[in-house]
Each structure stands twice: as structure tokens, then as C-alpha cells.
Amino acid sequence: MISKNRISDIRKLHQKKFRDQERLFLVEGRKSVEMLLQSKFEVVEIFATENVFRENQKLLQYSAVTMVSSADMERISTLNTAPELLAIVRQPVALLPITDDEPILVLDRIADPGNLGTMIRTADWFGIRQIVCSPDCVELFNPKTIQSTMGSFCHVQVRYEDLPAFLKRQSHRRILGTFLGGESISTFAFKTNDIVVIGSESNGISSSVAQCITNRITIPRGQTTAPSAESLNAAIAAAIVMERWSDR
Amino acid sequence: MISKNRISDIRKLHQKKFRDQERLFLVEGRKSVEMLLQSKFEVVEIFATENVFRENQKLLQYSAVTMVSSADMERISTLNTAPELLAIVRQPVALLPITDDEPILVLDRIADPGNLGTMIRTADWFGIRQIVCSPDCVELFNPKTIQSTMGSFCHVQVRYEDLPAFLKRQSHRRILGTFLGGESISTFAFKTNDIVVIGSESNGISSSVAQCITNRITIPRGQTTAPSAESLNAAIAAAIVMERWSDR
Questions:
Q1: What residues pair up with B157 in beta bridges, in sequence order?
Q2: Residue B237, CB half-sphere, CA atoms under 13 Å: how many?
């Protein structure tokens, strides 16, 4: 059981203002919560619907597990379909440092939480565990971002930094950015410790970040004389580059 | 100006039932409508907010253009932010036939309209102009699908077919599907007239379709000993395969 006040408190975490203030965030859905429980994140409280609560004995290892009705789960969740599990999680205070030889994905002004989450999931698949976002990127702890990572937020470090300042500190690395007319990714010789910059959905890479790019790369269009798409979705472009980068 | 009844009629097209019944669909947003006007789709009516109505002389070539207030545009649109242009468009009755030498992307039970739209946009970028969906894929004319194509629905033919029957008629082609343990896409020799099958977000390729697959291909994970993502998003997997397929 869960009181009206408690429901109202949890619902506050749907908003960035309260997530920032409380330094908490929500993880929703069975798979995501199960991956969370194998991670180092500090889980403050778990809410489970009755069927999961009864069948999943592992959950009972956690001190703060509350059984809730589906109706109450619907109230505390941001999802249209009530999940079976929902966790309140502490935002980490420290991240693992970036080592000199590991790949870094840099995201410049990504606005869509689904895109950010999908990029985290794709980076995780390709073994890229460090993502650096510009301060105006969408928030990692937005429930839609967390949802789209499908649990990969547990494996990938995401930090927010002033990008020109960050990139200037990385002068031993090449900094790659996607532009029209760059070298084709199919022939470009990627290195493990490259940095790849992906620009925003609508405006690409901002000019102050573009000045830090050392190598311009391009995803070639298919051969066609007919009119074709003007651009690729940012998460799609990032994935295509990561796949080539991973195949080095 | 636009009457309450008219608003209510247009809002009916937010629902699949009425889109099916009227054989109409909505195209929303300036860029999408501008691409639409360069296509062969039959535009039934266009609604424009005042600023676009006054500045875009091209629009006046169309007989049925109505100026609406931002408030009314918000009412007739499915988007959270009212677009500047919205068009009511006739669903095409016939599609261009598939020629023997052109690539085909086959989608099996794709449920998310954003994923379908993104796959259409990506296919368009890579010059793949024929998509065949299983009957239980999400609807092309869902406003979220159309929105995510960013106008590429104008360039790509999307049809719905019983997939095992369709694939059996394509016996002169190879039919590729993504599976764990298949041949790596980085070494696989793609051909222009291959068919690539992408399975659903949650369940992959269904068994009746899997029986038609002639070549199993795989997107390899990055080299890592740490736990990583369990899978890729369907639109991401499709994009990565299309990029390799395009680079033949």
C-alpha cells in the first residue's frame, strides 16, 4: 500500500526540477529495474505490482520494496502502460574517470530524450562507455531517456561538460565530426581513442565545437538520381559511425 | 477561418479507424508539407498559420489553402507544438511495382511508429525505395510515422503484404535476416537485389518468416568483457545494415 502523499511525492520526480533538487530519478519497467539491481547505483526504493512481488524472490533481498496495485503503479509511473517494477534511484555523485585510451562519444545539443537514450544503448552495444554531453543536451535522468537506454544507463558514463573546454583538454586525440563533404566513414581509419562528435537533430554541430574538429567524416548517401532524404536522424547517424568505429 | 465541425472532422483523422474509412491522412510541419507539395501525392487541403500563409506565395498555387489561427492549428494537429502547415492527403491507391534489381527492406511486426518512420527516412538516404511490411506492422499513415519520416514517405514505397507468401515469390533473391551468430555484416558481401528482413522490437523475426531467410547476418558487439546492451533498437539495427548494404 502507498499513501496519496507518497504518490504525489513520487510523481514530483516526473519533473526535472524535483529530480535536480532531490538528486533522485526513476527507473521503470521490469528489465530496466533488473539490470539496475545488478549495477552499482544506489536504489532508494522499489515498487512492485503484486504478481512480480510474489514471484521474484530476489526482490526481497532489498529492504525497501513496496507492493502496489496496478492502479497505483499507473499513478506513479510516467509510462502509458503501468510497468511491473519501478525504482527510485540516487543520482550518482561521481563518475569513473575517462582513461586516455578509451573511446569517447560527444553529443552537442541533443534535444530528444529518446535519441539520447538510444545513443547510450547503441554505445553500450559497441563497447563505448564514455559519453560527454554539452550542458544544453537533454537530461540523462529524464524518464524517456532512461527508458530508451533499455538498462544501458547502468553501463555507460554520461557527463555534462562545456564542450570546447573539454575538447581542448583532449589534444592528444583526434576529434571527428560528421559533416557533408568529409571523408567517407567506409574508408576512414578509425582509432580506438578517437572522439566522435554528434550534432543536434536540427542544427548539427555548433560553431564553437566545430572549431575543435580535427577530422571531418561523412556517411555517404546511396547512389540515386531521385530526390532523397535531407538528413539522417541523429541517433541513426551516431549508430552508423559507431559501428564503423567499432570495426577497426 | 475554420468551423468547429470542420475541426472535429479533421481531428477524426488522428484515429486509424477514420483514416482507413476516408482513405486520407495528415502531414504536419512546414518541411514535410513542402516536400509533399513536390511529390505526386494528391493533397486535398492545406491549412496554414497566418505568417506562412502571407510569406509563402507557392502555397497560393493550391486551390484549397485555408488560413487558421495558431489556436485552431493546435486543435487540428496531433503535435504538441502547433505546426505552421498541415495537409490532408489522399492515401495512394497504387504503388510503383518492385523491379527485379532493386533492393527491398522487409519489416516484420514493427510496432513503434517512430521506428517505422525513422526506417523509411534512413532507407531513403541509402537509396532503398521499396519497403514491405507485415500486415501487423504499425500503420504508415499514423501521424507519428509520417512525422518521423521527415518527408521521406514521399520517396519510399511502403506496402503491407503477407510476408511468407511475398518472400516465396522472391526466390531469385537472397533473403537476409539479422540473427545472433550469423555472418558479420563487416565481411558479408551484400548485393543490390538482396532482401533484408528486420524483426520486431521485442520478438525479432517471427518463425514463419525466419524459415524464408537464406543468409543469417549479425551486427557484432564491440570488444568488451563488461556486461553490455542486450540488443539494439530495431531502427538502429536496420540503419547499420543498410549502410553496409549501400557500401557494396
A1: B130
A2: 30
CA distance B203 to B206: 7
CB proximity list for A101: less than 8 A, separation 6 or greater: A192, A193
The sheet that has A65-68: what strands, in order across it? A24-28, A85-90, A43-49, A65-68
Rounded Cα distance, B212 and B168, in Å: 7
C-alpha–C-alpha distance, residues A104 and A96, integer Å: 13
- What are the phi and psi torsion angles at B234 (to 5°)? -60, -40
Residue listed under C-alpha cell 578517437: A194
Asked if the Cβ–Cβ distance from A229 to B122 is below 8 Å, we say yes
Distances (CA, A) of A85 to A13, A211, B160, B214: 16, 45, 36, 40
Closest CA to A225 of B18, B129, B75, B47: B129
Contact B229 A127 (CB under 8 A): no
Give the span between the Cα atoms of B46 and B64, in whole angstroms.
Answer: 6
**Listed residue (A6, A9, A56, A48) closest to A28, CA to CA:** A48
pLDDT one-digit tens code per residue, B54-77: 777 677 677 688 999 999 999 999
User: Are the CB atoms for B36 and B154 separated by under 8 Å?
Assistant: yes
Q: Which of B114, B124, B186 sits opposite A229 (nearest CB)?
A: B124
Query: For the segment B118-133, what is each residue's pLDDT rounded down to a tens digit?
Result: 999 999 999 999 999 9
A236/B118 Cβ within 8 A: yes
Q: Considering CB atoms only, which of A124, A155, A221 is closest to B125?
A: A221
Q: How many CB pairs under 8 A join A and B?
A: 120
pLDDT at residue B248 greater than cutoff 90: no
Q: What are phi and psi of B83, to 5 degrees?
A: -80, 170
What ipTM was assigned to the predicted interfaces of this complex?
Answer: 0.94
A180 vs B79, which has greater pLDDT? B79
Task: Give the other-Cβ count within 10 Å of A136's Cβ.
Answer: 13
Strand partners, A177: A197, A216
CA A130 to CA A194: how far, in whole Å? 12
> Which of B132, B113, B135, B136 is closest to B175 using CA atoms?
B132
Mean pLDDT of B18-41: 94
pLDDT in tens, B95-149: 989 999 999 999 999 999 999 999 999 999 999 999 999 999 999 999 999 999 9
